[in-house]
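Translate sequence into C-alpha cells.
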Amino acid sequence: MNVKVAPYGEWTSPISARTLVTGVRTLSYPTLVGDEVWWAEDRPDEAGRTAVVARRADGTLVDLLPAPWSARTRVHEYGGRSFLPVPVGTGVALVFANAADQRLYRLDPGAGAPVPLTPPPESPRALRYADPVLSPDGTRVWCVRERHVDGDLDRHLVSVPLAGSGAADPDRVREIVGGSRFLAHPRPSPDGTRLAWLAWDHPNMPWDGTQLRVGRLAPDGTVPEWSTVLGGPSESVFQPEWDGDDHLVAVSDRSGWWNLYRVPAAGGDPTPLYPAAEEFGAPLWRLGATTWGRLGDGRLLCVHGTGTQRLGVLDPATGTMDDLDLPYQTLFPNLHVAGSRAVLVAGSPRLPTAVVTVDVPTRRHEVVRTAVDPQVLPDPEWLPVAESTSLPGPDGREVHVHIYPPRNPEYTGPPDARPPYVVFVHGGPTSNSPAVLDLAKAYFTSRGIGVLDVNYGGSTGYGREYRERLAGRWGVVDVEDAAAAARALVARGDADGARLAIRGGSAGGWTTLCAVTSTDTFAAGTSLFGVTDARRLAEITHDFESRYLDKLLGADVLANDTRSPLHRADQTRCPVLLLQGSDDPVVPPEQAEQFRSALVAHGIRHALIVFEGEQHGFRKADSIVAAAEAELSFYGQVMGFHPPGVPVLELTG
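Result follows.
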C-alpha cells in the first residue's frame, strides 16, 4: 500500500460520524440469571431507548423488553440499575422502571405487555424508583423511591408488591425507612430480620462521606430504628453485602483508599481484608454500582487497581489475592457474582467494551455482547494505540493521562509538521476517563488529530488524596493539569503547540471554558452541556448535585462567583463551540445561551447548537452524528485544515 502524505486533519477515514451510532450501544448492569445473562443496553439508533437483553442458554440473544418500552430510571437524574429478574412460577419475570413515566412494571414470560406495579404519579415522573432487590420472602421488590412534591423531594427505601396491588392503591407501596436525603444499596440479611443500606446528606456527595446503617425489620416491614456501623461525614462507604447474619463486608476509604472491610452488624471495629494503596470501589454516580461479590466457596471476587483495574480472587482467611489473567484493563463497576461464575462489563484500548462472563475455577472468559457490532468495528490498523502514563504538572505534581496518537494506515503527515491534538477532559468532575476503545476518539485520530485524555487532579482511581486535589480549586487545578499535560506533549515533540483544542462535557465543559478564558494554551474549545455560571447552577440544578459546589468551589468563591467562565467571557482567548440539550435538567440550556450572548457581546467567534429533546448527554443517533461533525468542522476552521466529507459549521463573530 502506498502511504499518502497529507496535512494532519485532512486524512480520509472509514470511521464516519454515523459509525459512532451504527451498531453501537452502551452496556450496563449484566446479571447472571441461571444459565442466562441479562443486561441493559442503550441504543442511539432507537432514539436512545434502553433495552433489556438476554443471552439464552443456547446462545441466542433476545430483547426481553419490546419497543417502545425503555428501562431507564431518573433517580438522582443520573439513574442507575433499573431492572431486576424475579422468579415467577417456572420462569423469570422482568421488573423495570419505565423511562417515560418512571413507574415500576413487571413483564412475565410470554406476556404481551408489562403490567404496572406502582401508582401513577400526580405529576409527570414525580415518583421514581431505582436500585431494586428482591425481598427475603420473594413477594416484594425493595428499592429506592424518589418522590417530588411541591418543588421539593424526599427519598425512602420502599417495598413494592410484586402482585401489582400497589398500582391502584398507593398505600400498598410501603415506606421501609428514610432518615436521610440520599439512600442506596438496600441489602436484607440472609435470615430476613435486618436491613443494611447506605445513607448520606447534603452537602456531601457519596464519595465525600456516607454511612452504612443497619436496622431490624419490624413485623409491619418497616425499620423504626437503626445504627451506623461504618462511615461518617469524611469516610466514603461503598457496596455493603452481608457475610452471614451478623457481619457485613463493605468498601471504605478510611485509609485513603477504597479498601474492603469486614464489619460487625451490631457495631464494632472493622477488620481490613486486604490493605493496599489501590481502589476496590468507585464513585456512586449511578445507583446499583458494584465492584465485588462473594463466590460460592466464600472467597471474594474483586475489581481492584490504580488507574487501571484487575479482577482478583481474595481469600479472606489468608488475606491473599490471586489475579485472573484477562485481556482487559478497564473493569466497570457492574460486577455480578453467582456461585463460581461472574459477569461484568470490561474494556481495553484494543478490544471493544463488552459484557464478559468469567468462570473462576477454569479462569476462562467469554464475550457475550460487544458495545460495537463486529461488522461495524474498523480493522485494528485504523484504531489508535493508547499510551497510559503520567505527565508533569504544576508544582511537581503528576497528571495521569491516556495518549492516543493519530493513526491511519493510508496516510502520514508532512515530515516537518506535528499533529493537532484535542485534550479531552471528563465530566463529574469526581469521575475518571478509562483507557478503552472509543470510536469517538478514533473519529479524530484516524483523520490525523491526536487525543490527549486527562485524568486531572480530582479524578477517581488514584486514592482520596488525588481525588480531593480539586476541593475549593475547581476551575484551577483541572485547568492547570489539562494545560500542563498539553504543553508537556508539545515539549515531547508529539503535538503542534499552536493547534491544541480542549473539549469536555458537563463539568468537563466548565473546565474547557475556564481554560479558554484563563490560559493561552488552546486554539479552540468545545463545551458539551457545560457549566458556565456556578452560582446560578447551584440555585437551579437538580437535588443530587445542588450542594456539590460547596466543596468544589467553597462558600466564598461561590458567593463572589469570581471563577465562572460567564463572568470573564470577555477574556475568552479563542473560538468556542457550545453543544447543548434542550431538556437538560442538570445543566439547563440557559447556561450555554447566556455564555453565547456574552460571546456575541464581545465579538468572539463561536457557534451554539441546541439539540431538541436531548437531556444531559446526547442519546439520539442524529444528535450524536450532528455534534461530531460540527466539532470536527469547528477544529478544521480554527486550526487551518479541511476535513473531507463534513458539513461546514457556520461560525458567528
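Note: The radius of gyration is 24 Å.
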